[in-house]
Specification:
alpha/beta, metal-binding, TIM Barrel, 3 domains, three-stranded mixed sheet, binds iron/sulfur cluster, 3-methyladenine DNA Glycosylase II, Chain A, domain 3, eight-stranded parallel sheet, oxidoreductase, 16 helices, 40% helix
């Protein structure tokens, strides 16, 4: 969060000597607050003041980048409606180093197949977490190398054994994996290893007090590329830890918790595990390590993540132009809806399921749903008639029938009068489109 000029001024020497190029300390503070100039221009600023200014101007939760474009943290609010959440929870699927070569290959294939298209967006699983469970640094390094060769996705190398990390990391350091975990017992070796290879590292302790103390000790090693693991593995304690870390970082600016937090699921039954992971996506994991890797299990989690990490002030929208579903012809029906992605793609999916090639004309309602748009005066008969005329769909069909959402049946008469088209009131929900077309 940016500091005000007065907050900066309080930390300056107040000599008003002008050596920084501005006549007074206050003028210098104002220049810094507006992003002009550097604190280095004042030769008299103390180390304490520099530390305080650096610390106060740092974001509440540091951004940590690793792997193939994964970004953790850099969040500024507790609640999505306060502003927005910026970096969707990174989802990683675990592969234990005790699996056979064939099993690792099979798991990788399953992970590579986790690609989804939803409301016009494409999304995939973010990475793979290789877990050292063998007790053998050589085996861990071998499986890490096999996984790295089999996927371009982000990597997490996880072992509490510094020797295992030392064996596996050099071969994949160019992929900038996240490594862990630095614990009370090994943190000097593991943090120094991360520092040497310039990769981020998980700091793990049992409980928040121990974690804060360990982070402070680890920072003294001159490295701050950290991701936090508060240790708990039960859903209730993990949720409590995630919430405390976020609150303390955002509300209290408690610096030891100014880093992203990673969570690990404890459930083994896939649906229970996805339910558990959903809680962590909502509050407030920056990354989650999962066991489930079937499409049917991962898709709902990704849908939840997508919904939470859209900007509430900028709804996802589709282009408000004439769209086609299937091989349209002059008899194809025409559906009217809004350009809110969720609404549009719900309609499109059901029209597709009806197996009748059709036109869909989404009206530009600034990405709001049908009822919201109608209530806000953005789904008016005059506007729809105008867009209908400009779309040119009248030249493509040999009929003059329009299907409008059942929720706005009230506009049918006026729309018919203004447009000259016969207005048919469709179902209220898009889920009724298939049965509606059968009854037509
Ligand atoms: Fe103030 Fe430092 Fe500038 Fe002198 S050099 S006026 S002490 S800010």
């Amino acid at each position: 969060m940016a500091l005000t000029g007065l907050e900066i001024y309080k930390q300056l020497p107040k000599k008003n000597c002008g050596e920084c190029g501005t006549p007074t300390c206050l003028a210098f503070a104002m220049a810094l607050a507006s992003g002009k100039g550097s604190l280095d221009a004042c030769p008299y600023v103390t180390d304490e003041a520099r530390e305080a200014l650096d610390s106060a101007s740092a974001p509440p939760i540091k951004a940590i980048k690793f792997g193939n474009g994964s970004v953790l943290g850099d969040e500024t609010v507790l609640f999505r409606h306060d502003k927005t959440f910026y970096h969707p929870t990174t989802l990683l699927i675990e592969i234990a180093d005790t699996l056979s070569d064939e099993e690792v290959q099979g798991k990788l294939q399953e992970i590579e197949g986790l690609e989804f298209d939803r409301v016009g967006l494409h999304y995939t699983i973010d990475g793979v977490a290789v877990i050292e469970a063998s007790g053998s640094p050589e085996q861990f390094a071998k499986v890490v190398a096999q996984v790295a060769a089999g996927t371009e996705r982000s990597l997490l190398l996880l072992s509490d054994n510094a020797d295992a990390l030392k064996a596996a990391l050099p071969g994949v350091a160019g992929r900038k994996p996240l490594i862990g975990s630095a614990t009370e017992a090994n943190y000097e070796a593991v943090v120094n290893l991360a520092k040497e290879h310039n990769v981020p590292v998980i700091i793990k302790a049992d409980g928040l007090d121990a974690l804060a103390a360990l982070v402070e000790n680890a920072q003294k090693l001159g490295y701050k590329e950290f991701v936090l693991d508060p240790g708990a593995r039960t859903p209730s304690q993990t949720l409590a830890n995630l919430t405390h870390c976020r609150r303390l970082a955002i509300k209290k600016k408690f610096r030891p918790f100014g880093y992203p937090v990673i969570a690990f699921t404890s459930k083994t039954e896939p649906l229970a595990e996805i339910t558990e992971a959903s809680v962590y996506v909502a509050k407030y994991a920056s990354a989650i390590v999962l066991k489930a890797s079937a499409k049917a299990h991962i898709l709902p989690l990704m849908a939840l993540r997508q919904n939470l990490y859209t900007d509430p002030q900028k709804p996802i929208q589709v282009e408000p132009i004439l769209h086609t579903v299937g091989e349209v012809n002059e008899n194809s029906p025409i559906y009217i809806t809004t350009n809110f992605s969720l609404t549009y793609y719900s309609v499109e999916g059901e029209v597709e399921a009806s197996k009748i090639p059709s036109y869909i004309l989404p009206i530009d309602t600034d990405g709001t749903s049908v009822l919201t748009a109608y209530a806000a005066g953005k789904f008016e008969p005059e506007k729809i008639a105008d867009i209908l005329a400009k779309s040119g769909v009248g030249d493509k069909v040999n009929h003059r029938n329009l299907i409008i959402p059942g929720y706005v049946a009230v506009i049918s008469g006026k729309l018919q009068e203004i447009s000259g088209w016969k207005v048919i009131v469709g179902p209220r929900e898009s889920s009724g489109i298939v049965s509606f077309t059968r009854a037509m």
